[in-house]
Amino acid sequence: MENERELEQQRVDQVIDEIQVQLKQTEKEYQKAHEETSSVEKNYVQNAKVNTTEVDDRMETNAEIQQQKQLVAKNIQTEQILKDQLTTLTDLQDTPYFGRIDIQDPGDPEQESLYIGTASLNDDHQNFLIYDWRAPISSVYYNGTLGKVEYETPAGTQETKLLKKRQFKIKAGQIQNMFDTNETVGDEILQDVLDEHSDEYMKNIVATIQKEQNDIIRDTKSDLLLVQGVAGSGKTSAILQRIAFLLYHSRDKLNADQIVLFSPNLLFSRYISDVLPSLGEKNMRQVTLYEFFSRRLQGLNVESLFDHYERQDELSETQKQLDRYKSSVAFMKRVKNYAKNLPSTNFEFTDVTFNGEIVFAKEDITKLYDSFAGNLTLGHRFNNLKKKLIKQLDQIVAKEATSPVIQDQLENLSDEQYHELLGEHEMEFSSYDEEQAYFGLQLAQKQYDTIYNAIYDDFFFDAYKQYGDFLQAELPEAFAQYSKNIEYHRIDLNDCAPLLYLRDLLTDSGQSRSIEHLFIDEMQDYSLAQMVYLRHVFGAAKLTLLGDSEQALYSKGQRPQELLQSLAKTVKARHSNLKLLNKSYRSTKEITNFMKAMLPEGNEIEAFTRPGKRPLVCQVATKDQALAALRHHLKRALGQYNSVALITKNMPESQRLYEELHHELPVTVLEEQDRTLPSGIAILPIYLAKGLEFDCVVVNDVSAAEYPLTSERGILYTICSRAMHELVMISAGEPSPLITQLDPALYALERTLPVK
Ligand SMILES: Nc1ncnc2c1ncn2[C@@H]1O[C@H](COP(=O)(O)OP(=O)(O)OP(=O)(O)O)[C@@H](O)[C@H]1O
């Protein structure tokens, strides 16, 4: 093997030589492109300043400017492509590849060695020096054990014989470790990766993708892919590598803007933001449910998922029941039914006013709407209404264009205003009058801009009132609270999806047909009603939903198969697929074994064999002692790890602990709008820690008083599962039954005797 290693190092050196040649070449091309862009830009600025007093001059300048503009845009694009190439080559220079497969195709006497890395590389003679990890043949590396193997290509299933599989760890161009493996992707390198301490950003996992994860990443057939995976099983990692794979697989048809990921919180959004760029791809669009609803309900304060969690404890049983109904598919069906059967006289239209005067009266709008045949679809009728209103507005504007006020403005038009009104258009006027008429109309239209926008944005229809009307008819018990909220410009989370659904159905709006893929992480936090709405919005998208029902903080999880069935029905999927991930990679074996014992069906969870300390339960007698223990462990962990988190059940507890600790320790409380993790110790409630991981997690109080109920299992489980290397739990008094019921061998118990 020593000899082999030398040979492999020689190859690495050769490939790096080639990379360096290409780097130099690309650098030159990039410089050239950059200079060209600068010179075209300079030209463009000078042209834009050309004298524009005469009409002919103005026209010519305008056409030229357009041309220059296009040229600049094209140059910038070329420059960007070259810049991306430079980044890829620079990354490859450090780690050209991580895997090798030796294969022999049927009927071919020769065997071939292929090397696999984060991007492909050819030499001048079109020899593949490195295969991209997403190339069809690369799947053999992740999937196959030695012997006959199959892999999917655009031309169909292919067969080959896998003779050797070799893994490398290469850093700064030097092979640090390499070995042959018969398994999918062997444990040793994975162990190495997982042993490392946490980082501010999540890393890509392409060198160590596991077979089950690979199946998720490369699934191109399902329109609903549901992944149910235990905490730390690589669900988030799988989605991100899947996005990179899809972008590669459909390079000509798909771009990153056509992919949306719903992420649990802003910290998470940033945490994962480096993975795709590290694979040479642009990031997909990311949004939290809160942002999504807030953008669609402008002017209202949308209740966030976090506020929603925080108020759970205050809700009466009746309110909880109402909430459950509003979250159901049945409720969304009622919304649809209501919309379908709504008589035009019950439409909540409103007056459209301009400078205090009514331009369109509510009654007239209703009459107009009523004039369209009832057999048209709702959307059609509404769109016809809009067109008609615009037409009527055009007439008002045309009249206004000849008014003395506008004529007066025309007289005093500056060059700047002239160009602004001309915009991007290339106009030729045969007479002075024609020119005046054109600009008169432009000025009048500008004046009425807000009204045009109001009509385009459906402001002549009051969706909030309409939903109130629906509630009164369908769920009168919920009406008072809803209208009080609206009065204060607020809306409960559970009202958002049904309200928007109603608005969209009645106004034929809100749908994003250009989105091809929708990903939802932490899907256990979404209600089925929200799923119905998201399906409605992203009607053309394929769905990938990832979750862990055990991490549902405030609701009971469903079994995966049942969940798939209800989701497939809800989103009307044709090819649904369920994938389970049972192996947990995040935490040490000891932490995973502790967590899994907490769950009734935890047996299915498999711990990755990375050894560490047993979780520590530190039982003390009083609150003061608990605080002292907390200080002690936080201080110790801070000296040892990159990231330490004190995770609480809710925000008030986080704030209280901050007050207790901030004089002595570098602690920061994280809020919902925070995007970055602080250095030092992060204090945060569990719902903000969703999807994140920390080297050491400290839990403030796991006493029976704090966690008396089995219904709180999800919370404790999710908190514990954020720990990679160490987990410390302080308990003021007897620990929760969720812990005492476990095999005592699973954790270390440290007791401080009560103070006499
Ligand atoms: N194949 C792999 N190779 C290397 N690291 C991996 C692999 N799979 C998962 N990991 C690591 O395990 C940790 C957990 O992964 P990830 O966050 O994707 O899991 P998850 O299932 O989304 O977790 P959770 O639901 O608990 O938030 C991450 O640090 C990730 O990098």
Automatic annotation (TrEMBL):
Matching InterPro entries: DExx_box_DNA_helicase_dom_sf, DNA_helicase_UvrD/REP, HelD_bacillota, P-loop_NTPase, UvrD-like_ATP-bd, UvrD-like_helicase_C
UniProt xrefs under SUPFAM superfamilies: P-loop containing nucleoside triphosphate hydrolases
Residues annotated to bind ATP: 229-236
Superkingdom in the source lineage: Bacteria
Molecular function GO labels: helicase activity
UniProt entry keywords in alphabetical sequence: ATP-binding, Coiled coil, Helicase, Hydrolase, Nucleotide-binding
Chain coiled-coil ranges: 9-43
UvrD-like helicase ATP-binding domain boundaries: 208-588
Protein name, as recorded: DNA helicase
Gene source species: Ligilactobacillus pabuli
